[in-house]
Amino acid sequence: MFKNILLGTDGSPASEHAATMAVSLARTYGAKLTVLYVVDPYPYLGVGETNPMGFQAYMATAHQHAAQAHAKVNALCMAADPKIQVEARLAEDVTATHGIIDMAKQEGADLIVVGSHGRTGVARLMLGSVASQVVAHSTLPVLVVR
């Protein structure tokens, strides 16, 4: 049924839960699992002189977080079935929503799996939801794991 599953992860507990589901699906269907970590655009305010050290520190930290998130998913795959084909991907300077959707198309994914923090009310209104935006804009099936 599924040949290539794209998992959007940020290393949070919600995305770890989604990773467990994605690994299970990959094992069940013998699908490739593409694990994507999206680095948000650098929050440059445009005030005063630019500080290249700030950007470098931001990117170094983002790459470290991505490596940790990818390692968690790799560990889940090894525990479930060492034969699961896993590919780590990183998207930079793009919003999470567009990064996930664009990478899914680029990789030829037939399912997107994302976690949801389960925010409701004002918190959801103020913070938004990457999961809901992916569902709203994707032409592929999306599995949202709470």
Notes on the protein architecture:
There is one protein chain. The chain has one domain (4-145): 3-Layer(aba) Sandwich (Rossmann fold), CATH 3.40.50. The protein is 50% helix and 20% strand. It is built from five helices and five strands. Strands 3-2-1-4-5 form a five-stranded parallel β-sheet, sandwiched between helices. By secondary structure, the chain is of the alpha/beta class. The radius of gyration is 16 Å and the shape is globular. Helix 1 packs across helix 2 (52-80) and helix 3 crosses helix 5 (130-137).
Biggest sheet strand line-up: 3-2-1-4-5
Main sheet overview: 5 strands, parallel
Number of helices: 5
- Identify the CATH class: Alpha Beta
> The CATH topology is what?
Rossmann fold
Class inferred from helices and paired strands: alpha/beta
Categorize the overall geometry. Answer: globular
Number of domains: 1
CATH architecture: 3-Layer(aba) Sandwich
**Terminal CA distance:** 23 Å
Oligomeric state of this protein: single chain
- How large a portion of the residues is in β-strands, by DSSP E? 15-25%
Helical coverage, percent range: 40-55%
The CATH homologous superfamily name equals HUPs
- As residue ranges, the low-confidence spans are none
Order of helices and strands: EHEHEHEHHE
Averaged pLDDT, please? 89
